[in-house]
């Protein structure tokens, strides 16, 4: 029994924690498929399509069939009165079954432009919602790229903290050997031991930051399985035609959406006046009314009716005028919003151009400094082992190496984010 228990415990201990390697392209595909904002934007597009077909249905004629069956019974209290008056139930249309059928066909030929502008608005709304859906996808792709490369950076930070800890542990071993030989006081050894512990804590903190960021990214992707981002930072910085990219800014989706909204409200402005315009309606009506139902033509011919209605509103409480004024104000507001957004996008784009130029000029310098700091640390370490340099010299060399390496990975992350931002602003 004890042996079985031991085997079960070992089996649980040896079970590996599986994680799924995921590339940037896979992450983008999953994010755009699972994102709730994109799904809701898709529903908005579907609803706009429904409104479009609803608007088109206004051009169809209206055909109505109304059937009424009525059985008129004479109360006992009235029968004597009717006889006394010398009448009969039949002559008064009482005490009989009446079948009534009304057929009507209505075709609104002109409705003051309401159908026309209403349909144009519905078509415009479909276009706007499709653009919003595309803009939402662009936003999700941008967020995915930022989150993905942030995770890669945090992985590099863990690697750096591991290296730093290994360096510190090596220094502790060297210092311990020198302490055993009586070359250094115990205080220095204790100080180095504290430094090792601090670096272990820093490594644990970096791992914690990575796990938290990874869990958030998994929730963003709506994935339950453990993931491991796989990818590399690149030092390549593409050449950018600033004028060409700035020109693309004017055709970005967010600006185009506002332009389409202005056109939509323009239709609302014209629609407001439709109540002042005449309407022309054609109506055909046939009626059958008899005690017994029949399809005999003579029962219907005498009740055919064709009506052409011309309705010209002289006064309509001025609602259209106020709606027209309201639409004009809304158009002006959207124009100002577009101008504000355009200025904001240009500012962000110019800022990104400047950041990219600074990254270009600093990347080679930081890379060279990082390589020199690595060589400096190795030389300082060898000199320290020979007793030619002090512990403080070694500590300074290690600190410089850590700072330059962290700055190197940091500027590569900033480069990726800046390129993503330029792409996002001009889509």
Which features characterize this protein?
about 425 residues, Outer membrane efflux proteins (OEP), 4-stranded antiparallel sheet, 6 strands, about 10% strand, disordered N terminus
Topology:
Blueprint: H1 2-14, E1 20-22, H2 24-34, H3 36-56, E2 62-71, H4 76-84, E3 97-111, H5 114-180, H6 186-221, E4 227-229, H7 242-249, H8 253-271, E5 279-290, H9 298-301, E6 305-311, H10 319-385, H11 391-425
Helix pairs in contact: 2-5, 3-5, 5-6, 5-8, 5-11, 8-10, 10-11
What does this structure look like?
By secondary structure, this protein is an alpha+beta fold. The chain has a domain at 235-275 and 318-427: Outer membrane efflux proteins (OEP), CATH 1.20.1600. It is built from eleven helices and six strands. It has helices at 2-14, 24-34, 36-56, 76-84, 114-180, 186-221, 242-249, 253-271, 298-301, 319-385, 391-425, and strands at 20-22, 62-71, 97-111, 227-229, 279-290, 305-311. Strands 2-3-5-6 form a four-stranded antiparallel sheet. A two-stranded parallel ribbon has the order 1-4. Helix 2 (24-34) packs across helix 5, helix 3 (36-56) packs antiparallel against helix 5 (114-180) and helix 5 runs antiparallel to helix 8. The chain is elongated. The two termini are 67 Å apart. The model is unreliable at 1-16 (pLDDT under 50).
């Amino acid at each position: 029994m004890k042996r079985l228990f031991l085997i079960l415990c070992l089996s649980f201990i040896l079970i590996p924690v599986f994680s799924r390697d995921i590339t940037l392209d896979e992450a983008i595909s999953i994010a755009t498929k699972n994102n709730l904002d994109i799904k809701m934007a898709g529903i908005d597009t579907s609803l706009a399509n429904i409104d479009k077909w609803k608007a088109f249905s206004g051009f169809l004629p209206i055909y109505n069939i109304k059937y009424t069956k009525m059985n008129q019974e004479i109360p006992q209290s009235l029968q004597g009165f009717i006889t006394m008056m010398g009448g009969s139930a039949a002559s008064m249309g009482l005490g009989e079954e009446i079948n009534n059928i009304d057929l009507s066909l209505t075709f609104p030929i002109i409705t003051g432009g309401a159908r026309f502008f209403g349909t144009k608005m519905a078509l415009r709304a479909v276009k706007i919602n499709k653009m919003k859906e595309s803009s939402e996808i662009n936003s999700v792709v941008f967020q995915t790229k930022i989150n993905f490369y942030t995770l890669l950076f945090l992985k590099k930070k863990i690697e750096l903290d591991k290296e730093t800890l290994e360096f510190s542990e090596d220094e502790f071993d060297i210092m311990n050997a020198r302490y055993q030989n009586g070359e250094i006081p115990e205080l220095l050894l204790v100080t180095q031991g504290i430094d090792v512990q601090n670096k272990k804590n820093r490594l644990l903190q970096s791992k914690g930051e990575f796990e938290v960021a990874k869990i958030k990214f998994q929730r963003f992707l709506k994935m339950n399985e453990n993931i491991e981002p796989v990818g590399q930072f690149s030092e390549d910085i593409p050449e950018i035609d600033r004028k060409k990219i700035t020109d693309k800014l004017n055709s970005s989706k967010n600006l185009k959406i506002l332009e389409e909204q202005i056109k939509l409200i323009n239709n609302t402005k014209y629609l407001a006046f439709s109540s002042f315009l005449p309407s022309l309606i054609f109506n055909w009506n046939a009626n059958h009314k008899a005690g017994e139902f029949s399809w005999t033509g003579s029962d219907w011919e005498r009740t055919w009716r064709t009506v052409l209605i011309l309705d010209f509103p002289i006064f309509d409480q001025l609602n259209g005028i106020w709606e027209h004024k309201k639409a004009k104000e809304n158009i002006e507001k959207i124009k100002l919003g577009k101008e504000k957004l355009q200025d904001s996008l240009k500012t962000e784009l110019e800022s990104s151009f400047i950041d990219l130029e600074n990254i270009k000029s600093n990347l080679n310098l930081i890379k060279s400094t990082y390589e020199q700091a690595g060589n400096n640390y190795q030389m300082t370490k060898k000199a320290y082992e020979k007793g030619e340099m002090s512990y403080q010299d070694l500590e300074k060399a290690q600190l410089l190496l850590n700072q330059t390496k962290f700055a190197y990975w940091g500027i590569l992350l900033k480069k990726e984010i800046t390129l993503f931002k330029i792409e996002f602003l001009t889509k």
